Q: What sequence folds into this?
């Protein structure tokens, strides 16, 4: 089995899986109906991306495992989602900021991955990038709308950006599988996306009348390496509830 | 009082199956009756998201989660069409939402029952959506144009939901003994609330006669209820499930199923607000609305800024 490719697919699939789960948690709680519809579209796209990557990971593993085994029967330490995707839905400002920071990252990552020499990865990336460009457009517009809206919305969105900024360190951390696979032209180094990501996010944050937080290096261990936030365990306990409670059942 | 001549012309149009459109003259009572019915229907879609949302984060496979998430999204979409249809009658979404939050507007009582196992996702799709479709197919022929057109679109999606729900029940009924028991238990809990969804018997239905005359409703509560029961029994029996009604039996002479006595005391008690979930459902919707207040205000303030910039430019 190609361990690096397997781990890399988990890294991509898990991040989308966990973020889509956070969006699922928000279902029926949006500020208005149109937003409930819009955010659910994003969640469904992410879940579809997760499914594609986990299917491919299961194929690589080639021992009868399927995508549901990977989503529902893996332990926390075997997940490779990034911390930012695990952050709970504290309020709409956090939800939008989390989405915007990841959308901007994904737009760069998936655009590179469209050129991967692995056909499955490039295929998933080509399909996903169309969705991600729409996601970024939407989250970017919300950042601007909230930044320029009222005093309260300005404060709330700035606070969310300040609070979540520490988790952006991980976006540019090169995991072992990325390092190995990028040598072969299969993956792309996360660190290579940093400059452009800072351009994209700064432009929007400044246009919104907000300030870009200082880039501090935190002492963190990362989700890409299987070390997670305290939040993930609860999320998995809920998500994996039925398959763990009824191990013999098929749904 | 409405002008008798206009009223007669209106009734002629109705009798000739000509749709009434927003700009057409209509009796005030017709308008009020429609506002009540369409907004109730919209609220039902929105409140109906909650029992399913309760299992969205515990859906047991990626496929099941995608289906459920898309289904709940469809319901939000149905709510949106219906609020828009109500707007064509001169009430804003905010007005009808306020009535809901003040407890002055109703929604389908069935959503006040709790969804306590995964099998409820099957039962809600199969039975609750199944009952809703019977009603909605009939409403495609309603006399008010925007409502009728919304129903056509909604029916197409609801029939998917019904099949998806039934698929969940099938997979459980064919699964492990525990899963089959889960399906039976869900049928036991959701059967009677679904049968009650059609409302009181015809003799006791407050709005029925006028609504039928104006073709707001096309068929009576009991006719629709009977159609739902007739089409559903076989679907359960084929899976080896039992309906919680000992009086249920095929009647050769009527060509319909006979069914037992409906517990109308429970129905009215839940309608009045004393069901297991009334407070919870309403509180959830109010809390979401209140939590979103600052976001809506910001969106309006931003739109105003953009508008005034374009005006001065």
A:
């Amino acid at each position: 089995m190609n361990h690096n490719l397997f781990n890399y697919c988990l890294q991509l699939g898990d991040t989308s899986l966990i973020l889509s789960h956070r969006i699922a948690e928000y279902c029926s709680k949006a500020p208005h109906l149109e937003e409930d519809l819009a955010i659910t579209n994003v969640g469904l796209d992410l879940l579809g991306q997760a499914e594609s990557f986990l299917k491919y990971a299961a194929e690589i593993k080639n021992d009868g495992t399927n995508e549901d085994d990977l989503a529902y029967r893996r332990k926390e330490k075997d997940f490779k989602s990034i911390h930012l995707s695990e952050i709970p839905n504290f309020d709409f400002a956090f939800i939008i900021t989390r989405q915007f920071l990841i959308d901007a990252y994904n737009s760069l990552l998936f655009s590179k991955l469209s050129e991967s020499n692995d056909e499955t990865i490039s295929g998933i990336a080509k399909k996903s990038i169309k969705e991600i460009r729409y996601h970024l457009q939407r989250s970017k517009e919300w950042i601007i709308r909230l930044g320029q809206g009222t005093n309260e919305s300005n404060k709330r969105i700035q606070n969310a950006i300040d609070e979540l900024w520490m988790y952006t360190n991980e976006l540019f951390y090169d995991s072992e599988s990325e390092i190995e696979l990028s040598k072969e032209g299969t993956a792309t180094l996360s660190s290579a996306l940093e400059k452009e990501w800072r351009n994209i996010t700064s432009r929007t944050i400044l246009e919104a009348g907000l300030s870009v937080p200082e880039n501090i290096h935190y002492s963190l261990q990362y989700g890409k390496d299987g070390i997670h936030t305290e939040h993930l365990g609860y999320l998995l306990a809920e998500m994996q509830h039925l398959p763990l409670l009824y191990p013999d059942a098929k749904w | 009082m409405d002008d008798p001549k206009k009223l007669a012309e209106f009734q002629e149009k109705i009798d000739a199956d000509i749709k009434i459109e927003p700009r057409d003259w209509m009796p005030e009572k017709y308008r009020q009756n429609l506002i009540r019915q369409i907004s109730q229907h919209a609220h039902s879609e929105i409140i109906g998201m909650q029992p399913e949302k309760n299992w969205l984060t515990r859906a047991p496979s990626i496929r099941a989660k995608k289906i459920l998430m898309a289904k709940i999204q469809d319901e939000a979409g149905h709510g949106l069409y219906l609020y828009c249809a109500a707007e064509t009658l001169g009430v804003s979404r905010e007005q009808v939402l306020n009535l809901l939050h003040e407890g002055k507007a109703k929604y389908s009582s069935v959503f006040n029952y709790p969804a306590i196992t995964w099998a409820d996702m099957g039962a809600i799709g199969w039975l609750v959506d199944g009952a809703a479709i019977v009603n909605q197919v009939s409403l495609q022929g309603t006399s008010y144009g925007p409502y009728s057109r919304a129903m056509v679109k909604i029916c197409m999606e609801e029939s998917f939901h019904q099949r998806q729900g039934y698929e969940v029940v099938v997979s459980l009924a064919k699964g492990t003994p525990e899963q089959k028991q889960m399906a039976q238990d869900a049928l036991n809990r959701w059967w009677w609330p679904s049968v009650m969804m059609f409302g009181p018997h015809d003799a006791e239905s407050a709005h029925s006669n006028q609504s039928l005359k104006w073709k707001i409703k096309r068929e009576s509560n009991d006719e629709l209820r009977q159609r739902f029961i007739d089409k559903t029994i076989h679907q359960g029996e084929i899976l080896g499930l039992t309906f919680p009604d000992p009086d249920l039996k095929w009647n050769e002479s009527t060509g319909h199923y006979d069914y037992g006595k409906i517990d109308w005391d429970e129905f009215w008690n839940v309608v009045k607000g004393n069901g297991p979930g009334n407070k919870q459902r309403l509180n959830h919707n109010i809390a979401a609305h209140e939590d979103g207040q600052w976001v809506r205000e910001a969106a309006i303030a931003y739109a105003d800024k953009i508008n005034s910039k374009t005006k001065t430019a």
User: Anything to note?
Assistant: The mean pLDDT of chain B is 96. Residues 145-173 of chain B form the longest helix (29 residues).
